[in-house]
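The passage that follows is intended for readers who have already worked through the single-chain material. We present the inputs for a multi-component assembly, then the predicted structure in tokenized form, and finally a short commentary. You are encouraged to pause after the input and sketch how you expect the pieces to fit together before reading on.
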Amino acid sequence: MAVTPKGFELPGKSGKSSSGVFAPEGTIVTSLDAVVNWCRKNSLWPMPFATACCGIELMAVGSSRFDIARFGAEVMRFSPRQCDLMIVAGRVVMKMMPVLQRIWLQMPEPKYAISMGACASTGGIFDTYAVVQGVDRFIPIDVYIPGCPPRPESILRAVMDMQSKVQKGGSALGNQGLPELRQMEEQLIQIRTRAGLPGVATERADESRFGYRLPGGESLVGRTETR
Amino acid sequence: MTTKQTSKPLPDATLARIRKRCGEGVFSVSSHLDNLRLYVPGSKLVELATILRDEFGFHLTELGGADYLGYPGRSPASHRFEVHYVLLNYDTAERLILKSGVSDPDPTLPTLVPVWLGAGWMEREVFDMYGIVFQGHPDLRRILMPEEFQSFPLRKDYPLRGRGERHNFERVTREDS
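Having made your guess, compare it with the prediction:
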């Protein structure tokens, strides 16, 4: 009795019902990007940039009770060279911003960023001379977590959101990000490269009232202007 | 053997001794609860501090500034800024506060680093936050704010929301990184 091999024939290109290629049992057909993204999303290596109380919650997420290892993101590394997920946990002051940017630039591609908590996302209650009003003004952020500080469950939720973003965006050859983020960044580059307009928004009209401005002139008007 | 000593108000006797030693007109006195404050003009500050250290055994425990711009009930003739030096005698647990006023446009005080070395960083902080210059300070740089920061954020006429200085960072986009 002849043994028929188990498996299936791959579908052909449009118009043909069969490609003539036989795939044995257990074969999965998918795109290379999908496989690469699947690998990436299940082994995120976080860079904990913990500057405040959010960092304590982040530690809780790493420990056994909440256990971020269930999502494959337990390997917190303190060298940016070994990380691909930056978690900005806590308020970032002006003096720290160049450090944050430098660490971000040191991380190898593909890389992602989570802004954790009210302070990292918006400055929170610290609307003062020293605190940056949202790190997304200075580095690209993929996922925001609300809360002050966020519950560990929110952080796990954010990791899951991050995973679905990683699965949808990016390719094997590079991380271009999601289309909407790409579009926003293109707008940003346009704003940055065009000739400066003086800041005229009424909200900001009193800025130079006391003459306390750094050299560099009036700020530019734009959707993503910094406050 | 140690005995527990708490801070107690300066007895009138010590104040009288200080007054006798320095002479009239060097300082004026005010008090609030157990705080005794000696107001000294900047020109007499170093002299008085040296006497308090050498002859009365006081040490510097804290140094800070204040901006009284628009302070309710304050006479327009008085100084805009005040720098206070909190002194403590370790043996008798007497506390004493020296205060010295300065005004715009050139708020300058003599430094107390030659008297108490520990004043160095505290004077730098007061300079950083209020822009009060301590003349003779060996290293009067900003201590907290970044070096390129140009204003003095604890002055009362500094905008509450601190806008202005945060604009000029380069933005790192996904494209750059």
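Commentary: Chain B has three helices and seven strands. Chain B touches chain A through 27 residues (CB under 8 Å). How closely did your sketch match?
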